[in-house]
Specification:
The complex is a heterodimer.
Chain A: E1 4-6, E2 11-14, E3 19-25, E4 32-38, E5 45-50, E6 55-57, E7 60-65, E8 70-75, E9 84-91, E10 97-99, E11 103-108
Parallel strand pairs in A: 2-11
Antiparallel strand pairs in A: 1-3, 3-8, 4-5, 4-9, 6-7, 7-8, 9-10, 9-11
Chain B: E1 4-7, E2 10-13, E3 19-25, E4 31-38, E5 42-51, E6 54-57, E7 64-66, E8 76-78, E9 87-94, E10 102-103, E11 107-111
Parallel strand pairs in B: 2-11
Antiparallel strand pairs in B: 1-3, 3-8, 4-5, 4-9, 5-6, 7-8, 9-10, 9-11
Classes of the chains: A mainly beta, B mainly beta.
Chain lengths: ~110, ~110
């Protein structure tokens, strides 16, 4: 089993749609969690951290379920500029971050 | 506001050549990492360091060496380049154990 698994996608949605991405992780000792965004041929950039109580940043909502080892990202009112690959990322104590393979989102007008 | 700087941005090598990819950060971060990204494989960890003088292997360390003589620099060495090492290489740093990482722009490496 891979350490971090994501919906492979691609997700093709119209502008204004709500879309949700899911992610599971295998190591119960994982300590911190993030969603990154990566545009084509660019470096990954931090979208948001994921907290146990859930957190929101504008149109983006992240949830963490430690018992199920599950992370989610909800994007409301999708924009064309949201088209990208979204990476689920898990941090284990004293190591580098472990990345999922990413989910590709394409928002069309 | 440089952040994480990688050089070179592009490189073409012949099989068997050696090369060092440079990575420097100016944020005084303790943690630094090297990843490679291949189509369909996502980002895979090659080596990482939790501080000057300390390095450890990641998921795909074979064929690569690293050293961390200073906090700022974390070079990645290809000892004898192979076509399988054709990839995009990203260096990253973070300030604390639970912090997110900041990435460099990447190095696109082709081995012929």
């Amino acid at each position: 089993r891979k350490e971090v698994e994501q919906d492979p996608g691609p997700f093709n949605v119209p502008e204004g749609a709500t879309v949700a991405f899911n992610c599971t992780y295998s190591n119960s000792a994982s300590q911190s969690f993030f969603w990154y965004r990566q545009d084509c041929r660019k470096e990954p950039k931090l979208l948001m951290s994921v907290y146990s109580s859930g957190n929101e940043d504008g149109r983006f909502t992240a949830q963490l379920n430690r018992a199920s080892q599950y992370i989610s990202l909800l994007i409301r009112d999708s924009k064309l500029s949201d088209s990208a690959t979204y990476l689920c990322v898990v941090n284990q104590a004293g190591t580098a971050l472990i990345f999922g393979k990413g989910t590709t989102l394409s928002v069309s007008s | 506001n440089a952040g994480v700087t990688q050089t070179p941005k592009f490189q073409v090598l012949k099989t068997g050549q050696s090369m060092t990819l440079q990575c420097a950060q100016d944020m005084n971060h303790e943690y630094m990492s090297w990843y490679r990204q291949d189509p369909g494989m996502g980002l895979r960890l090659i080596h990482y360091s939790v501080g000057a003088g300390i390095t450890d292997q990641g998921e795909v360390p074979n064929g690569y060496n690293v050293s961390r003589s200073t906090t700022e620099d974390f070079p990645l060495r290809l000892l004898s380049a192979a076509p399988s090492q054709t990839s995009v290489y990203f260096c990253a740093s973070k300030g604390g154990a639970s912090s997110p990482q900041h990435f460099g722009d990447g190095t696109r490496l082709s081995i012929l």
